[in-house]
Amino acid sequence: MPDNSLPMSEPERIDLLVRAFKAAWDHYFRPGRQSELLECITRPALAKFLVSKAREGIDDEPSLAAAGLEFFFSLEDAQDDEEKPVDGEFPSWSLHLENATAHLSE
């Protein structure tokens, strides 16, 4: 069945991206949610991600917003992977006390 819809104009596409961005952002960064994602880094990354999804052909707000949420969760997963020790190894610690001084007071 042929697609009889008119192509989206550039202002309509921008409006769609803004609405999808806002929906994903507001849902993820809702008040009371604990997240270690930095907003100053995440904001431009989400914008670029949504633009790439729109270029891939996703052209409806709910799908773009859902993709944005999946993007946030993938960032959390990547961050969690960086914090875990590799292969069950724990970080090594070294402590040198040769030059340490202590002052005790009563």
- Largest sheet data: none
Mean pLDDT across all amino acids? 80
- How much beta, percentage-wise? under 5%
Instruction: State the distance separating the first and last CA atoms.
Output: 88 Å
DSSP helix fraction? 55-70%
Weakly predicted, low-confidence segments: none
Q: Which word captures the global form?
A: elongated
- Tally of helical segments: 3
Radius of gyration over alpha carbons?
23 Å
| Structural class by SSE content | mainly alpha
In total, the number of strands is 0
Output the helix-strand order: HHH
Task: Describe it.
There is one protein chain. By secondary structure, the protein is mostly helical. The protein has a domain of 45 residues. Helices cover 56% and strands 0% of the residues. α2 packs across α3. It is elongated, with a radius of gyration of 23 Å. 11% of the residues are buried.
Please summarize what this structure is:
The protein is an all-alpha fold and 106 residues long. The chain is built from three helices and no strands.
Notable characteristics:
mainly alpha, 56% helix, 106 residues
Summarize the topology:
Blueprint lengths: L9 H19 L10 H17 L5 H23 L23
